[in-house]
Design brief:
alpha/beta; Methane Monooxygenase Hydroxylase, Chain G, domain 1; Rossmann fold; six-stranded parallel sheet; two-stranded antiparallel sheet; 8 strands; 18% strand
């Protein structure tokens, strides 16, 4: 039930943010009808949490934001048109290695989406990953990728290829570059989750279009594998280690 609960919060948050964009064009009756519906949905989430003994602490900020946005919309203070439009681009394999291999932690992608969606409108949240061939359930990432697709992410995959020398590769750098360049005209900010220096030219190109560029990775004063040229190419660097309390699994 927990993934379903998370999805409902994500959907409600997106609906409320969209309502803020619509509000100036709505008549009073339609606006009040939508506000009433979303308040009922919000109350149902609280009631569901209580009945199922769901810990609301990881979701409290998201629920509080929804309630605050509803109140501001009802009062006529329309934050919607001023909301920054953001796109997230997650290099799945790279981010997993940064978090697990270097920081010994696993990320909670529901928390991650809520954290980076605070006070902005996430137009797209892409997750890029290679899929493992064969029937080995221990290696398969399909269930995880399916969960992401049901919980606010747009998943982009390609099969992992195994070469004659035994090496396996599933590089999605081109897919990331194409998607980011296509969305550059539609967003105010892009956030890249990767430490790969190959993306430095891409960030410079996107930045030249007037889009704010951010990188989330582990640098750790040089202990991490993040390429310095990637940090230099971005408008802002977010140290992964510093935000782990907000986006990591709590039951590790």
């Amino acid at each position: 039930m927990l993934p379903n609960f998370t999805q409902k919060i994500i959907e409600l948050g997106g609906n409320v943010r969209y309502l803020q964009h619509q509000a100036p064009a709505l008549n009073i009756a339609d606006l009040e009808k939508k506000l009433h519906h979303y308040r009922q949905t919000l109350q149902a989430l609280y009631d569901s949490a209580a009945q199922q003994k769901i810990d609301l602490i990881p979701y409290y900020n998201a629920l509080a934001d929804i309630e605050a946005n509803l109140k501001m919309t009802q009062a006529g203070f329309y934050r919607g048109p001023q909301l920054e439009k953001v796109a997230l681009f997650i290099d799945g394999a790279n981010l997993a290695a940064l978090a697990y291999d270097y920081l010994n932690t696993k990320l909670d992608f529901a928390k991650l989406l809520n954290y980076f969606g605070h006070n902005c409108y996430i137009l797209r949240a892409f997750y890029y990953a290679a899929t493992y061939p064969g029937d080995d359930d221990l290696k398969s990432n399909i269930p995880f990728l399916s969960w992401l697709g049901r919980n606010g992410y747009q998943v982009v995959t390609k099969p992992l290829r195994e070469y004659a020398d035994g090496k396996q590769k599933g590089n999605l750098d081109i897919e990331i570059a194409v998607d980011m360049l296509e969305l550059a005209a539609k967003v105010d900010r892009v956030v890249l989750f990767s430490g790969d220096g190959d993306f430095a030219p891409l960030l410079r190109k996107v930045g030249s279009k007037g889009v704010v560029t951010q990188v989330v990775s582990y640098w750790g004063d040089g202990r991490g594998p993040t390429a310095p040229e990637l940090i230099e190419a971005a408008d802002k660097f977010i140290e992964l280690q510093e935000i782990l309390p907000f986006i990591s699994k709590s039951n590790q």
